[in-house]
């Protein structure tokens, strides 16, 4: 880690295979277009070489032998070839424009869908901005690949190959030494270029780190402003920008040096060949016209070789991006390898057997947790902050797999169950009431897009959404802003509860669902919960006495262990952890409570 700059010092060396195979997959998915493209390139390049190829004929037949009758047919051939070149060029541009967009769109869709299928633990180690940059920017690199890189490389290789074939046809003696010289030159250039792909991988990594940091500081702009941290954010961003600039300039300088070196080498080779060719003409082994054509082909071949050399850099940059996409696609989805046994719909019997769990090997967060929760009952999880309540909830949602032990739903282990089927029966309200940037209605409908208007209204009613929605000009169509920023904490919480209830779930997991509600709303919600429980299993993390007291079983967690269990009266009688927790609650000494 580069501590001064706040950026990892090195992005890691990119491997060659993943990016290449991803590119190959993408090209293979459009076989007809690729084949048509290759044919068009072949025709286009052959037409391009008609002009240099006919120069020799013009010199030998028209200028040297004065056969002016040959001129119209030579000119007609050149004009026809030029027309063909223009037409195939246009067709290539149209074909590639479409193919590029198609490849980019399907790559983005594939990466986005894959990311959504990854387990929650994957996201614990990623910045959302970095992932977003990968989906959008790295996929975009396919355009460079299929467009300038692949097309121009193939075109340059075809041009070089055809020109080279022409040169061999005209003079084997001149061309054979050239092959040796070019092979040596290619080896030297390759050695001098070093691992360009790793450098581009580092640049792309730095760019996504910056994008991640930027989106984080924009999302947390209130905290930044509240703590007057704007200058600090500016310094971090500027230093990251400086590291990126240094890395980019280094690659560009390297590229400029390679291009200049290659240019010089090609010019020297051209000079040598001109000298050797002139000697051949003087010795009568070659006509002037053939030497002219040879030199024209040589110019085309050198130009093509230079072009391929230049594109190698772009190729490396695009491959580095594809490597990064491939690294995401290599991550296993959370349902991978499951047998998906045919299971009947969930009824909601939860059995947790000896579950231990650690986010990192260094720290076990839950130790040997066991309990059963059945439909029609309310289980409350209580305990001090950091005791593992939300983690247990996350295991019940199958966001993580236990390190040991098992979570069974209707006696089927969650580790082998299809998570899609299971989560269809799950209603969750998280500690952080997250809303998407759409309308209130859209946020609730996420739970069940096919819900009828009457079902929606029933859920709104259950959590008393109408109470604040009536004050909003667009009522349920009001846009809530990013993460629901335009609403209060309690309002967000109510929308999240409506969302969970719309699911009509068998298993209801509520992580401090009423922490931001006022007394009256909380009372109303408690009554609602009372009506809901007979048809489902409810597990609630709650600090409020009112919710805890009526639970069928209360599990008291301390440092990741269940230290007490029972109903309110049993636990109070123990005068242990629960008793102390209860005593510390506001209202505990109120005789009414
Ligand atoms: N994604 C994570 N990666 C690593 N450690 C985590 C992660 N989430 C939570 N922890 C750690 O696990 C422990 C239990 O956290 P958890 O959120 O389950 O506690 P909690 O009882 O719900 O606390 P609170 O009442 O404050 O919400 C804490 O020490 C916390 O730092």
From TrEMBL:
It is a multi-pass membrane protein. Its main location: membrane. GO terms for cellular component: plasma membrane. Residues 350-584 form the ABC transporter domain. The keyword Transport applies. The chain crosses the membrane at residues 34-54, 74-98, 145-168, 174-193, 259-276. It holds the Pfam family ABC_membrane. InterPro entries: AAA+_ATPase (IPR003593), ABC1_TM_dom (IPR011527), ABC1_TM_sf (IPR036640), ABC_transporter-like_ATP-bd (IPR003439), ABC_transporter-like_CS (IPR017871), P-loop_NTPase (IPR027417), Type_1_exporter (IPR039421). It is found in: Cell membrane. PANTHER family: ATP-BINDING CASSETTE SUB-FAMILY B MEMBER 10, MITOCHONDRIAL (PTHR43394:SF1), ATP-DEPENDENT PERMEASE MDL1, MITOCHONDRIAL (PTHR43394). This is ABC transporter related protein. It comes from Granulicella tundricola (strain ATCC BAA-1859 / DSM 23138 / MP5ACTX9).
